[in-house]
Amino acid sequence: MAKIETAKIVGSASLTTWSQAQTVVLDESRQLMIVLELTKKAEFTLLDLATIGAEILAEAVNMGNSLTDQASVKKAVEETLGEADPGLKVGLVMAWVEEGRLAVYGVGEVGVYLARGGQLASLGVFAKGELKIGDVFILTTNRLVSEIGMEQIKEVLLKQDNPGEILAPLVHTKEETSGIAGIIGVVRPEIKIKLRREYPRKINLWVGAGLLLLLIVMIGVGMVRRVRVNEERGYLDLENSIKAKMSEVQSDRELNPELARQLLTQSQREVETYLKTEIKEKYRLKAMGLMRSIKTTDEQVFKINNTQVTTVLELSVLAEGLTSTNMRSDGKGNLIFLDGNQAQIVSMNLVDRSKAVVALDDKDKLVWVGSGDGKVFGLGSTGVVEADLKKKETKQVIEADEFWKDPVIIETFAGNIYVFDKVQSEIWKYPTLGETFGGRRRWLAAGITPDLSNVVDMKVAGDVWLLTSTGKLLRYSRGAPVAFNMEGFPYQGEDKILADPVATYVTDSVVYILERGAGRIVVVGLEGKYQTQYVNSEFARASDLVVLDGRGYVLVDNAVKEFGL
Question: Which CATH architecture has domain 1-191?
């Protein structure tokens, strides 16, 4: 009866290549061996190789118990790969061993070699046969062969008693080890202790017991040492891979922020995959340290501010029963709220917390409030009303006409009023005439007819900024769209869109975006260059945003909350 001792060799992952080797003991007589290499066909393809590789290995292991012969191994390989991603090149070889019988099947740039009788032979990737005591075989990626060289591999397999312990250090002396993976199997006689029926002399019994104990201790020490070496090597491979990625993130963050984001995500998933394996506590703690270093690098590279949020005031305390999801600034230190349920506009002074309440006519049915230059305007289906906070009265300043279909947002700039009509996908401008306003004008330029049905917020600051529910920030100047791309922006997904954006605020130099789906407020320059982001879990529930005098204010669950900039 023979037994097979195995040793694994795995190189470090790179941006485009990931490899792994895995041996599974199915029962006393059966083993499954898997060598896998994944390579991206394009460097910037957003494929997480570590996650894909872990899924492939798990699927292959699940099929292990169903293997019975070479045909079943071939079927297992084909079903494991299924329909591989077109952006991925795969090398996979599986070997099934039962009571000395070996069945192998592989695809891609992999190979199987057998050392026997002083010769090294290539078995190809579709082979079966009986193993003999003294045989040495290796399942390997072609990259391992090209790096070490077939002559050196032959020398080690034929002449070394523990070839795995020789080849592994050779691999790790190479500068680039991505794509390297292999499993070395050595067929050895199974050691059995046979007791004689005769009554041995007492001294022989003690000698035999001593030798047996010594043998057990030696085997145990060797096994422990080998396990320790493999565990240490596994962690070092992970650590080297993460350090290499973090170094590249730091160097590429300005030129290629998308790649930096991809590398950070890959690193996080690589550590998560490692933590799911059976590892000792000290390696788990080290891996958690790597995860913290990834988070720190992420915060540094993408200028993440984990900001504190403090409650300024509950709206129901400001005015009895006050509820609002709409908050504006009048430019004079006051925040303005529209309470549609109680038909009132309420202002609050940020310095002394004083308030003013203006009751509305029931016919107004306002849907949005806008303010600027100390004036407050309410938008409803019948037109626009101006609210005088001191006199606590309103007057209608613009009458709706037949072109109004679904006015939902009102903004002011330089004394002019801008009304966004969602159904019409139009922006109507009413120029100021001092105390009154001129007639309605179409603000969009002639021939410009965009679909603006997804707009959720609008700001006018010379140019018009439109935020959409589809995750886009649009900029229009003089009625025409302006090419605007958020350069270096750390989008969360591959679609490069904002996650549930709900509000924006524009200053003379930057644009703030409340990205509720990401739980953050991001800041970009007027030309789109990413600057920083403020993160807090409460931003995921905010409905509006105002920035005044170096402080940010959000409306969260009917309360005004403040955060520092």
Answer: 4-Layer Sandwich (3.60)
Upper half-sphere CA count for residue 325 (Cβ side, 13 Å) = 10
Distance CA 173, CA 263 (A): 25
CA distances from 462 to 10, 20, 146, 536 (A): 59, 57, 63, 31
| Model pLDDT for residues 334-374, shown as the tens digit of each residue | 999 999 888 899 999 998 889 999 998 877 789 999 988 78
- The secondary element (H helix, E strand) that includes residue 350 is none
Q: How far is the C-alpha of 340 from the C-alpha of 365, rounded, in Å?
A: 7
Distance (Å, whole) CA 556 – CA 309: 11
Q: Which two tokens stand for residue 372?
A: 């600027």
Buried b / exposed e along 211-248 (16+ C-beta atoms within 10 A): eeeeeeeeeeeeeeeeeeeeeebbbebbbebbebbbeb
Provide the sign of the torsion angle of the four alpha carbons 220, 223, 228, 229, taken in this order.
Answer: positive
For the chain, the distance separating the N- and C-terminal CA atoms, rounded to the nearest angstrom, is: 73
| In the chain, where the domains are located | 1-191, 212-301, 306-564
**CA 17 centroid distance within chain:** 19
The structure tokens listed for 74 are 């071939």
* Most distant pair of Cα atoms in the chain: their distance: 122
- Tell me how far apart the alpha carbons of residues 45 and 381 are, in angstroms, rounded to a whole number: 49
| Interval 158-175: pLDDT, tens | 988 888 888 888 887 787
Q: What crossing angle do the helices spanning 257-275 and 281-301 adopt, rounded to 10°? A: 160
Q: How far is CA 448 from CA 98, 216, 424, 451, 479, in A?
A: 73, 85, 13, 10, 8
Q: Cα separation of 288 and 300, whole Å?
A: 19
- Residue 262 token pair: 């991809």
May I ask the CATH architecture of the domain 306-564?
6 Propeller (2.120)
Q: Give residue-wise pLDDT tens across range 405-430.
A: 999 999 999 999 999 999 999 999 99
Q: Minimal CA–CA distance to 400: which of 445, 423, 430?
A: 430
CA torsion angle for 98, 61, 275, 90 (degrees, to 10)? 110
DSSP tag of 60? H
How far apart are the C-alpha atoms of 85 and 239, rounded to whole Å? 28
